[in-house]
Here is the input.
Amino acid sequence: MAGIFHRLFKAGESEAHALVDKLEDPIKMSEQAIRDLRKDLQESLKSLAEVKSLAIRMTKDADDAKRLATDYERKAMLLLQKGQSGDVESGEAERLAMEALSRKEEVATRAVAATEQAQSQQQMVATLQSNVNDLKSKVTSYENDLVMLKARAKTANATRKINQRLSNVDSKGTVAMLERMKEKVAEEEALGQAYGEMAASSGSIDNEIDKALESGGSTAASDSLAELKAKMGIS
Here is the structure.
């Protein structure tokens, strides 16, 4: 697992596009590995709880045995005192005291063994606790790495799609199409200007004709006026 994350996260930016097509499987593998680690962690926590419980019981058994040994010794002393005072027959008191001390030795031996077992169990608890803490740390680290990996995969995928779209754009064809459009627009503009000039030219000819006709009519009227004045003797 550590090797997979190391290779993926140390890849250079120049390799991002090449990684995109291969990222899906490592991501799924990493997610499954983390799920497995979490399952192991849960099992480890369960085992840790069981070991701790056993250590607690062993410690309690050792403490109980120590208290019982102390109690047997106390009883043996009381029996000897009663034998001295005459409350209990001396021989009987010593016999019972001997039995109490024998029980004390048995319980004391059991207390020593229980204490050693409890200490051994406590060491096992400490070791298992350390392993659980280490596993927790690794799971957290891998989860953080996986979040980063997914983010990088999305970025690389988006970049790849954008670059693919840009690479599919025919820049030469687009420029050629724009040039043809410019030529077509220029032709339309020139044709419109030509029609405008033709319309203006047609209008000026009509104006000249009208002026000629008007000037002709004006001369005839002037001649008629002169002829009329001559008839009337007006200079």
Residues 170-235 form one domain.
